Amino acid sequence: MIVSGFKPRDHILNRLIDVYCKSSNFSYAHQLFDQIPKPDIVARTTLITAYSAIGNLTLARKIFNETPLSMRDTVCYNAMITGYSRNNDGYASIRLFCEMRQGGFRPNDFTYTTVLSGVAQIVDAEKQCQQLHCAVVKSGTGFATSVWNALLSVYVRCASSPLVSSSSLMGEARNLFNEMPERDELSWTTMITGYIRNEDLHAARELLDGMDERMEVVWNAMISGYAHHNSFQEALLLFRKMRTEAKPTVDFSLSVNNTLLTLYYKCGKLDEARYIFNNMPVKDLVSWNAILSGYVSAGRIQEAKSFFKEMPERSILTWTVMISGLAQNGLGEEAMTLFNQMRSEGFEPCDYAFSGAITSCAALGALEHGRQLHAQLISLGFDSSLSAANALITMYARCGVFKDANSVFLTMPCIDSVSWNAMIAALAQHGHGVQAIDLFEQMLKADILPDRITFLIILSACSHAGLVKEGRHYFSSMRVCYGISPDEGHYARMIDLLCRCGEFTEAKGLIESMPFEPGGPIWEALLAGCRTHGNMDLGIQAAERLFELVPQHDGTYILLSNLYAAIGRWDDVAKVRKLMRDRGVKKEPGCSWIDVENMVHVFLVGDTEHPEVQAVYKYLEQLGLEMRKLGYLPDTKFVLHDMESEHKEYSLSTHSEKLAVAFGLMKLPLGATIRVFKNLRSCGDCHTAIKFMSRVVGRDIIVRDAKRFHHFRNGECSCGNYW
DNA sequence: ATAGGGTTAG
């Protein structure tokens, strides 16, 4: 029986669009869409959302434009605006928002929240923010606190941005805070952390003390603020006060708790986040995903793995987080397995999931498989995705095919600072320091703001190219021109650069001028410079500090004993060796390869007949390594040694060029197998080296590890399809 | 049907 005027078939077809989009079958969804005589607004909105989610704004906008004005509604505008916001196009988002209001459509909570999240990314955010503020105020008082919170958070974010003068903006934020119809725990937290981020602990504390209700979350924000500014005394006092006075967190609503979880893990307070999670009366997938992301971003990958197993349900996002987490922590194989498992369980990977899989190819140096994924991306229509393209650039660069990295970069529909960073890093990794700096200058000309990662890359590039003057210039410009204060990584690279050029006095001065205590990376950089310049006294100072700071790192023992040996302090060598044996430091294939390399260094600079050196020989023999010097370059003191010759195995270190030359000297026997140590930080680097070698040596090289072969011939690599 | 959870660069 059919009621007249109602067409069940059309209705079902419209709903089917949603089903196809949910299972990522966009091309089916679109085909079906084209066949429906009059697609309804829900079907249109679904498709707009789906295309925005995969970064295809062109198609999203096409469907939006084809929707007659009489049919459009607020939700449909919201979906399109969200598309722009999520794809970092704040201006387009605002433009459409204005159009929407001119067309007489009434923005709602979602509209304001999503426009605001787009606004935070643009340069004149301050002005836009004020206009939105007016719009919210004029529209009456009917908006949820979440909209006011979003507005507040944009003010605060702009205030901490180097682009605008912060003093007035924090004042504006405070005015907004005061005039909000209602304030919830999030409003208080945002305002207080805003003050803390702008280094105004007094204002933050005053606000906290003026609170009527005593909410634990807000107190916690203040405590973290104190801790972050090293005011541990105040932090502790406040903590004690909170135990007796504040209201606990656990009875907040689901969405507030979810926001809190995220807030906590993003400030590195993962265990607090987990505590809230454990005590939440109701949890949903968002809560689980937030904690999983917490474990992954903290690098606590074992915990992440077991948490993932425990999860009652999973979404594409869950899989994506886990896959990229594994890939980033050097577990490329597991990441690939999981990627396949995801597909076999019926999830069609989104572009982010592809990014994770591509990252694991980069880590494994699996170029052929990476190319296959690239092809799949194109056929699925994901090739316009920013994150996938950025991952591709890195993958091609790490696998040594700079050409392909470059062509991805050049054909991308839009690029961001990550793309630039990836390209600059690709050049720097290939030893083209000067070109890397050229590209960096181009980036500045294109008005893309450099970030802390950009400067890490640029300082390394200067260091590799020996460009001290430029390095000094960029190092000082990062604070002066871009408001980025150098962190330990930046200082370490700067010290590395200075030491490579023998500027030890300046390096020491820089260490003394640092606003924090020097840690491992600083001493390591100094030590490395001392080794190349034979500055033994300073080197030993650095090594001793390193030894105090990171006694758990096997390499440190060897470095220190190595240096003592070099200047003949054999008693000290013996002491370190004893400590090493007591701690049970073992030399297994899973250990850092650099350790063995450093041991060999002892033979070169020290007295090979000395009992301690003999002991090292014995130590290595115990582990089944029959060490033999094959030849080294006098200028770099690089040594290459083979493993037991009957196994015909050769070990690789990551020093590409040295390695290539050394292999050239060494005359590989036919059919030799090269063993790649799994713990090498970047196997891609190794692949570059071997490729180079296969060209220099003019012979095929096969690299084998537990699961696959890579075949190198005349500078190219092919690998078996194991997945 | 729209939000909250993710991705890529050292």
- Strand order across the biggest sheet? 3-4-5-6-7
How many angstroms does the end-to-end distance come to?
53 Å
The main β sheet shows up as:
5 strands, mixed
Global geometry: globular
Strand content: under 5%
Tally the helices: what do you get?
A: 38
Give the mean pLDDT.
74
Structural class: mainly alpha
Helix content estimate: 55-70%
Family: Belongs to the PPR family. PCMP-H subfamily.
Domain DYW: 631-723
InterPro entries: DYW_dom, E_motif, PPR_At4g14850-like_plant, PPR_rpt, TPR-like_helical_dom_sf
Organism: Prunus persica
Short description:
The chain has 723 residues and is mainly alpha-helical. It has 38 helices and 7 strands.
Topology (SSEs and partners):
Blueprint: H1 8-22, H2 26-35, H3 41-53, H4 57-66, H5 74-86, H6 90-102, H7 109-119, H8 125-138, H9 145-159, H10 166-179, H11 185-197, H12 201-209, H13 216-228, H14 232-245, H15 254-266, H16 270-279, H17 285-297, H18 301-310, H19 316-328, H20 332-344, H21 351-364, H22 367-380, H23 386-398, H24 402-411, H25 417-429, H26 433-445, H27 452-465, H28 468-480, H29 488-500, H30 504-513, H31 520-533, H32 536-549, H33 554-566, H34 570-582, H35 593-605, H36 611-622, E1 629-633, E2 638-641, E3 649-651, H37 656-666, E4 673-675, H38 683-698, E5 701-704, E6 709-713, E7 716-719
Parallel strand pairs: 3-4, 4-5
Antiparallel strand pairs: 1-2, 5-6, 6-7
The chain binds one DNA strand of 10 nucleotides through helix 3, helix 5, helix 7, helix 15 and helix 17.
